[in-house]
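Reviewers of the previous submission asked for a worked example of the structure-prediction workflow described in the proposal, so we include one complete record here. The input consisted solely of the amino acid sequence. No template or homolog information was supplied to the procedure at any stage.
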Amino acid sequence: MFTKLPRWVEIGGFWLASIAGAVNAIGLLGFKHQAVSHLTGTSTLLGLALVNLDSSGAFHLWLIMLSFVLGAALSGLIIDREALRLGHRYGVALVLEASLLFLAMLMLSGGSVAGHFLSSAACGLQNGMVTTYSGATIRTTHVSGLFTDIGTMLGQRLRGHPLDTRKAGLYLILILGFVLGGSWGAYAFQHVQFIALAFPAAAALCLALVYWAYSRRQGRPRR
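From that input alone, the workflow returned the following structure tokens.
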């Protein structure tokens, strides 16, 4: 039940959503206006490139999509479980995400488009980390599903069903984190360009350290 949701889920979710929002803002400002934390817009751009017979653009977009999938696959390989639970190897996944973002920063700062693919893989890795809790889908790299779930919950409330305020609160926290992350990601990009990726990368690394410390305090193995 969401009424028993541990506080660390909300705190960690806000932090992760902020990281994704920052990376996506940097992507929109610097990766030829391409989103990297989700694939909806990228899929549309791929369709447009195919219609325009833009083979190089289509191949680039396809590689971004493939990188996202490979990142999610890496998450599944590391964590090996869908349900959100303390003790899973989230710390390892976060360190890998930070490494991918740092490498993307170096590549993009040097003018290499390989940084686009590394950034997308990092977002796919993060999106695959958090999947379900008490039967509810939890995503931290995009907010379309969160808005949909909130709208559905409001509609059910109008029909007389009770509103799960804890679940709605979590979704609002994730949305707020994504928006605020986009704000500080955009602000950083305006001042230091692709070096701005160092901030979400450092945030992911810090979150891994906090997670390991908290897991150890709760008597869970450090993973």
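The mean pLDDT is 85. We consider this example representative of the routine output the project will generate in years two and three.
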